[in-house]
């Protein structure tokens, strides 16, 4: 089974094991044990956090650098949100498939089905995120703060959809 692991998973596991070793060395063995006992959920939280960082950085890059010349604030927010969504979607699929759920597709048809399912669920949660971002504009709330709130909601929904629909064990 070890030889079937991809390089992404092997690198992640090396970092993960180092982190768990540190926890044990600083007398947090119970925390390390909790992590090991809930490894899928813990990996999802880590990869979700990394995907969130990618999403937020891409949003800020889009809104404050790439699309800064757009004077219509709503349009700029929406374009930046879509830009962030696409970059985070690619990253999230990669880490969820390879690290969290260690999904193996037996053929191209299964891979395409998995990708479409992942993308469809993420579009659904992105619509929720866009709605929250537009709410921020309407109520004159800081868009970065709302971006963080929207990502918390999206992470929870995405885990549920990934576990129950996309990467469910056969």
Structure description:
This protein has 170 residues and is mainly α. It has one domain. Helix content is 82%, strand content 0%. It has 6 helices and no strands. Helix 1 runs antiparallel to helix 2. The relative contact order is 0.11. The mean pLDDT is 90.
Keywords summarizing the entry:
mainly alpha, 170 residues, single chain, globular
| Uncertain segments | none
Largest sheet: none
Radius of gyration: 18 Å
User: How much of the polypeptide forms β-strand, as a percent range?
Assistant: under 5%
Q: Total strand count, please? A: 0
What is the terminal-to-terminal distance?
18 Å
- Total number of domains: 1
> What structural class do helix, strand and pairing data support?
mainly alpha
| Mean pLDDT across every amino acid position | 90
Can you tell me the overall shape? globular
* Helical content band: over 70%
Order of helices and strands: HHHHHH
The total count of helices amounts to: 6
Protein topology:
Elements: H1 7-25, H2 29-37, H3 39-66, H4 73-100, H5 108-138, H6 143-166
Helix pairs in contact: 1-2, 3-4, 3-6, 4-5, 5-6
